[in-house]
Design brief:
Number of strands: 5
Radius of gyration: 25 Å
Shape: elongated
Strand content: 5-15%
CATH class of the largest domain: Alpha Beta
CATH topology of the largest domain: Glutaredoxin
Strand order of the largest sheet: 1-3-2-4-5
Length: about 190
């Protein structure tokens, strides 16, 4: 309902501005779409308002699964090289690292699956998130060029990487949940 009323406002404001342009800015040739007459200006203004309203960023809510609004106690965040060293490289557990950004749609879609994976395998697999906007140095160090960028570390060494947002089954396969845990525990 909220989206509909916001969209209606964009259309009404666009129509009003287009109508005003059509009335006050009359084109002498009559071929200008916005300024030929008030009716045509209003029609074009409403269309432009509709397009702007549909492309306007939407506010996030706590129910949309966005990682910026739904923090999970099972996820760990690293923003500095020292935190990354402590949480990922020095970890005794296999670590799945997610390089992400709050504004990234696929990253936001992947967030609930990562939180579920971290919760299901708590104590056997660690999921660490690195926000590339806040930790640019880490992103450069690890040569992250596209997000989401997933990395799997076992024994402090990167063993696999994936760019893009896999579905739940793909994420579990990438994380090698059972084999990675067995491999990680045999290196002790």
């Amino acid at each position: 309902m909220m989206i509909t009323s916001k969209l209606a406002m964009f259309v009404l404001v666009g129509a009003a501005l287009g109508g005003a342009l059509g009335y006050y800015g009359k084109c002498t040739s009559g071929t200008c779409p916005l300024t030929a007459n008030p009716w045509r200006g209003g029609l074009y203004g409403a269309f432009i308002g509709l397009m702007l309203g549909m492309s306007a960023p939407r506010s996030t809510s706590s129910t949309d699964g966005g990682q910026a609004t739904v923090p999970s106690p099972f996820l760990t965040y690293a923003t500095t090289p020292a935190e990354f060293e402590a949480e990922v490289i020095a970890s005794d557990l296999p670590v799945l690292v997610d390089f992400y950004a709050d504004w990234c749609g696929p990253c936001r879609a992947l967030a609930p699956s990562l939180a579920n994976l971290a919760e299901e395998h708590q104590g056997r697999l660690k999921v660490v998130k690195v926000n590339v906007d806040q930790a640019g140095e880490l992103a450069r160090t690890h040569k992250v060029s596209s997000i989401p960028d997933l990395r799997l570390f076992i024994g402090g060494k990167e063993v696999d990487r994936m760019v893009g947002a896999p579905d739940k089954a793909g994420l579990r396969a990438f994380a090698r949940v059972e084999p990675a845990i067995a491999e990680g525990s045999s290196k002790k």
